Description:
Pfam family, one: GntR
Keywords: DNA-binding, Repressor, Transcription, Transcription regulation
CATH topology of the largest domain: Four Helix Bundle (Hemerythrin (Met), subunit A)
Order of helices and strands: HHHEEHHHHHHHH
CATH superfamily of the largest domain: GntR ligand-binding domain-like
Number of strands: 2
CATH class of the largest domain: Mainly Alpha
Low-confidence stretches: 1-8
GO molecular function, one term: DNA binding
Structural class: mainly alpha
Protein name: Pyruvate dehydrogenase complex repressor
Helix content: over 70%
Largest sheet: 2 strands, antiparallel
Strand order of the largest sheet: 1-2
Function: Transcriptional repressor for the pyruvate dehydrogenase complex genes aceEF and lpd.
Amino acid sequence: MEVGQIRQHRLSDDIVEQLETMILEGTLQPGQRLPAERALAERFGVSRPSVREAVQKLAARGLLISRQGGGNYVSDSLGSSFSDPLMGLLESRPEAQRDLLEFRHTLEADCAYYAARRATDLDRQQLQHAFDELQACYACEPRASRADEAAADARFHLAIAQASHNLVLLHTMRGLFDLLKRSMVTNIGGMYALRSETRHTLIAQHQALFDAIMDGRAEDARRVAGEHIRFVQDVLDEREEEIRRMARAQRRERP
Length: 255
């Protein structure tokens, strides 16, 4: 009987696996600096050379970036699925904005459903913090900028994705984060210009979504998330129709 060699398991492979898990779960986020080598060695109960070897392996795979004299960072490229040129193209096309909302309808409804079912106490604390930041933007006088409000809105929805404990949903949401922020800036401006009551409706919808998740009402959370996206789409469709009507009226006035 032929016996093959037994491959020796390296300690650094265990460290790689733990760091990969932290990246997947969002404990280590794109662009975040890793703790110092000594701190990681103490945390994992290993030697510093083993940590160094693990970091080198992850860097070779593009998951980490080592900066001379500046430490090790999770790769920024993990945080966005869309390049800046592509985001600019998507922003310039109304049909692309509609497609994004359709995608958000499915994505965020599922995130809300699973967050309501699976959120831990720590998840609820983080969700509470994100919700409080969004409420502070709504309550700000003078009114917060559209960019600040959009960023707070996007962070709230990202916190819901984190609480879903579904790694694919989470990283899909992370990949869309910059696109969501920039899209929300455009959406908020158009919606507020069309309907004065829009802000109050959005506040109520976010409150209902937050309450459903915190109370563990999964089906309600899914429903409210879907209603929220449909409302945004309805208002934006109305805004586009208003723009078309104004354009027709202006053409008729020309000699």
